[in-house]
């Protein structure tokens, strides 16, 4: 009886040791990287990163771009979620403030970025993204905190402002891209006489009008020389050269669509893609949309020649950093989110972005496949200026693009002169802007 008990006790001890070994093996297996992990990044299997954006029209292109990332990171999937541009900032503020929001967010640049930084909703990227220090400083400034000077995003695009034109319409009416202001006006007059809208412009939505002013007026007010003068306080928006640049928009109104202040942005795009309008003053971001909506449309671009009295005697291409990709401070997968934005700073991503979306990538070493994108990038590199209202005057309320848009719209409605528009801009921005700050 006693011997049987000892035998059973030894058997119990052996089985306990075996069970312990098995449990230990299972625990190690649970802690070890699974076979589905990314060899490149060492991610946990089945990590889903959510990327938020306001670029609804870019969904198909980004799916292809992120397919390339997922191939090299088999444990990670990237979900690209978009929202209406008019609703995006509100939704993003809510989403970044709680769990379940985006891991990576497309954020706007300069002043539009600051509220998210000040709320502590974005992770600083200084020293964490190889190659970021090689980006152009003016582009990086779009992702920089105004107060702390830290970088909070990887810039994704440089936008330039110029005139798109319909090559077939130009050829039909014997018109060449203008080399002088007078040639541009003569071409506009010829087109109008033939029943073609010369310039497709939207005067209904305020954000469009400062772009129109910048395209036609940058050389007149002086480009970067005026930029430095107004930032230092040596000049303001009542300066005669700046007022004269505003007057140019009013002078060109006969060549805009009839009742231009009632024309929406979408309608202005359709006027151009349908061939009813010959020229479209706008940003480089329009190209991909135009080509997708009208694949057979033969498009060219040109810089606006300097008008009479211009402070700069050669064409200018205004530009700005469009935005960047930032890591949410509350991401459930901060390591994987950081690796994704690191990839966004590489030539591989920059080339995919440029070629799929027909835009100018700020990543050093990227050369656009599309000849028009290369042309716009080259123009900016050689004769670039700053889109003043967007870059410097969105750090307070009211924002410069809204103020300038309302001022130009009042001119088009016949309710203000250029002098009054300039005074309105100076007064409104003077409520918060302090030179030298």
UniProtKB/TrEMBL annotation:
Database matches in InterPro entries: Bact_solute-bd_prot1, SBP
Signal peptide as annotated in the record: 1-32
Keyword annotations of the record: Signal
Keyword 4Fe-4S: no
Protein name per UniProt: Extracellular solute-binding protein
Matching PANTHER family: ARABINOSE-BINDING PROTEIN-RELATED, BLR3389 PROTEIN
Record flagged with keyword Signal: yes
Organism: Carbonactinospora thermoautotrophica
